Automatic annotation (TrEMBL):
Alphabetical keyword list: Cell inner membrane, Cell membrane, Membrane, Transmembrane, Transmembrane helix
Name listed for the protein in its UniProt record: Threonine/serine exporter family protein
Presence of the UniProt keyword Cell inner membrane in the record: yes
Domain of life, per lineage: Bacteria
PANTHER family, per database record: SUCCINATE TRANSPORTER SUBUNIT YJJB-RELATED, UPF0442 PROTEIN YJJB-RELATED
InterPro entries according to UniProt: ThrE_2, ThrE_Dicarb/AminoAcid_Exp
Listed Pfam families: ThrE_2 (PF12821)
UniProt similarity note: Belongs to the ThrE exporter (TC 2.A.79) family.
Highest classification ranks of the organism: Bacteria, Bacillati, Bacillota, Clostridia, Lachnospirales
Annotated membrane topology: Multi-pass membrane protein
């Protein structure tokens, strides 16, 4: 029995089929958004990986019992962390990967339903869905801020990159 099948056997109610469909949708959607955002073609795979990783984090944490806001915070932090790693690897700005990668986490449906409920004069539902969308948006912002506080040197060390001009003698 492989480790992966052992993990799924330990969690028999885990919706693996649904997860794989959603990961594919998140990755393809993120890659498509990176086209609209004029990301260079060679980075589409990195962007898709950021979006899929963020959605995987969100999906698993929400399935494990976290609230939508908590899962969104940790998923946004995971996207930004991976974006910063890719930025160091590829020597380009982290926003190139972060902005498309955050796309699957944006509470667009919550914002839409809030506007819909306001137009149809259902103020209680509008306030409930609007507050939930605002909490998710704030969680995304806090996840971004949290990871951007980690020094760039940490990501270089994780990837084994040396600073410019550093030699073996200076280490």
């Amino acid at each position: 029995m492989t480790e992966l099948s052992a993990w799924f056997a330990f969690f028999p109610s885990f919706p693996t089929g649904e997860l794989f469909k959603q990961l594919l949708a998140a990755g393809v959607g993120t890659a498509a958004f990176s086209v609209l955002f004029y990301v260079p073609r060679k980075y589409y795979g990195f962007c898709a990986a950021c979006g899929a990783w963020g959605w995987l984090t969100y999906f698993v944490l929400e399935w494990a019992g976290m609230t939508v806001t908590e899962a969104t915070f940790f998923a946004a932090a995971a996207v930004v962390f991976l974006s910063r790693l890719f930025a160091v690897m590829e020597r380009c700005p982290a926003t190139l990967f972060m902005i498309p990668g955050i796309f699957p986490l944006v509470p667009g449906a919550g914002i839409y339903w809030t506007a819909y409920y306001i137009v149809t004069d259902q103020m209680e539902l509008a306030s409930r869905t609007g507050f939930s969308a605002v909490k998710a948006a704030v969680a995304i912002v806090l996840g971004i801020i949290f990871v951007f506080e980690i020094p760039q040197s940490f990501f270089k060390r994780v990837l084994g990159k040396k600073r410019a001009g550093e030699t073996a003698r200076n280490q």
